[in-house]
């Protein structure tokens, strides 16, 4: 069963819930603009070979695709009852995966964060291993979905992991 949320693809079953958030349209327009700038710089460097600025244009044109390859295209949170929570971020170069075992899972929380001059909401998974400090893993830290999108993800992942609504101490 797949439900459509505002920005997230949601797949929920009794023991598994998966949430996927893709890059925003503005990021895709930015990617297109950077590609056009890269093409213009390569054209300038090829047509003006004798000028010293052409070497600089080529360096910048090579740096833009490297930067684009590191941009996050899709992020996901998969909650598996009794097993744990998997957070992943997919770029053009590959996928980074973080797994928090169910025995080490302390809480899944919504946090109000400050970024620059704006206040944003983030979803975090708190991992508490024995005899170690707690670690906070932020889900969807690149796509930064709105609170209206994060709230059903938070509720669904907590219900899948069978966590109560009581406050957790870290």
Automatic annotation (TrEMBL):
Coiled coil: none annotated. InterPro entries: PIG-H, PIGH-H_dom. Pfam families: PIG-H. One of its GO terms (biological process) is GPI anchor biosynthetic process. GO terms for cellular component: glycosylphosphatidylinositol-N-acetylglucosaminyltransferase (GPI-GnT) complex. Residues 76-141 form the Phosphatidylinositol N-acetylglucosaminyltransferase subunit H conserved domain. Belongs to the PIGH family. This is Phosphatidylinositol N-acetylglucosaminyltransferase subunit H conserved domain-containing protein.
């Amino acid at each position: 069963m797949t439900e459509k949320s505002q920005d997230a693809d949601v797949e929920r079953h009794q023991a598994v819930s998966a949430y996927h958030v893709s890059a925003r349209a503005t990021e895709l327009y930015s990617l297109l603009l950077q590609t056009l700038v890269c093409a213009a710089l390569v054209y300038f460097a090829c047509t003006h070979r004798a000028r010293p600025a052409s070497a600089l244009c080529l360096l910048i044109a090579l740096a833009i695709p490297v930067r684009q390859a590191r941009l996050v295209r899709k992020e996901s949170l998969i909650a598996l009852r009794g097993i744990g929570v998997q957070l992943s971020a997919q770029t053009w170069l590959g996928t980074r995966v973080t797994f928090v075992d169910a025995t080490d899972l302390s809480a899944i929380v919504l946090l109000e964060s400050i970024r620059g001059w704006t206040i944003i909401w983030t979803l975090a998974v708190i991992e508490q291993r024995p005899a170690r400090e707690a670690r906070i893993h932020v889900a969807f830290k690149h796509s930064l979905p709105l609170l209206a999108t994060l709230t059903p993800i938070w509720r669904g992942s907590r219900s899948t992991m069978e966590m109560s609504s009581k406050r957790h101490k870290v």
